[in-house]
Amino acid sequence: MKLATLRDYNATLLQTAGFKDYAPNGVQVEGKSEVRRLATAVTASQQVLDEAIAWRADAIIVHHGYFWRNEDACIVGIKKRRIAQLLKHDVSLLAYHLPLDAHAELGNNAELGKLLGITEQARFGEQDIVSSGVLDAPMTLTQFAQQVESRLRRAPQVIGPADRLIRSIAWCSGGAQGYFEAAIAQGVDLYLTGEISEQNYHLSNETGVAFIAAGHHATERLGVQALGAHLAGKFELEHRFFDQDNPV
Ligand SMILES: [Zn+2]
Fold first, then answer.
1. What is the crossing angle of helices 108-116 and 222-234, to 10°?
2. How far does the centroid of ligand 1 lie from the alpha carbon of residue 193, in Å?
3. d(Cα 202, Cα 219) in Å, to the nearest integer?
4. Which residues are within 5 Å of ligand 1 (an ion), measured at CB?
5. I need a labelling partner for 4 at 20 to 30 A (CA). Which of 21, 33, 141, 196 fits?
């Protein structure tokens, strides 16, 4: 398929124009105009580029691309090496950040809810980025933490009493620990996100609302894979997900 078709299709599917984001959504580095092999990954790291290029990908779609709002704009150091490699091999880099967290079916939060057995009932937070809902089967914090560990294949950091009954949950993939207070205001039993900060422990302790940090990478593997699978089903594309393990 044409790169331009892929770009336009994704823009409509993910409604990218409707988001205020920290990085550009869409084609960040332009490669060949024809795309047959599509690689997906969470982050456009050097290892991911190496593996995708060895597989002879024509385009790579990631959740974490380049050109973040507060970073140095100059193309030096690791940024130079990464971009030079993409240009040398004529491989495109497409990135989708908040639109890929928020998408109602393929998004990280939607996929995370499905995987963890939570039915979404509402959304809140800036640009409606946080989901909330109820567990299909209420269980204790320890039981739910075990479910998170087995389904995300990573041991989460768990704050709260082991026997606390968990029924309502708010969740947001990635580094969304800043929404913990907003989640508490929603009256949920538990807030789950990728990362935790020091003050989240005390907030949990003093409000009784449990907190699970399930891993930034682990909670953001789902959306980009779902998008890749969707695109491969829709167009003449071969798709492969490249998972560079990340302990954070
Ligand atoms: Zn992220």
1. 110
2. 10
3. 23
4. 174
5. 21
- Residue-wise pLDDT tens for the chain (248 aa)? 999 999 999 999 999 999 999 999 999 999 999 999 999 999 999 999 999 999 999 999 999 999 999 999 999 999 999 999 999 999 999 999 999 999 999 999 999 999 999 999 999 999 999 999 999 899 999 999 999 999 999 999 999 999 999 999 999 999 999 999 999 999 999 999 999 999 999 999 999 999 999 999 999 999 999 999 999 999 999 999 999 999 99
Query: CA 140 → CA 75, 131, 166, 212, distances in Å?
Result: 49, 20, 6, 13
CA of 175 to the centre of ligand 1 (A): 6
CB of 150 within 8 A of CB of 195? no
Give me the phi and psi of 185, to 5 degrees please: -65, -25
Closest by CA position to 12, among listed 111, 103, 127, 110: 103
In the 8-state DSSP scheme, what is residue 154? S
DSSP string computed for 187-228: T-SEEEES---HHHHHHHHHH--EEEE--HHHHTSHHHHHHH
- Calpha distance 67→95 (Å, rounded): 10
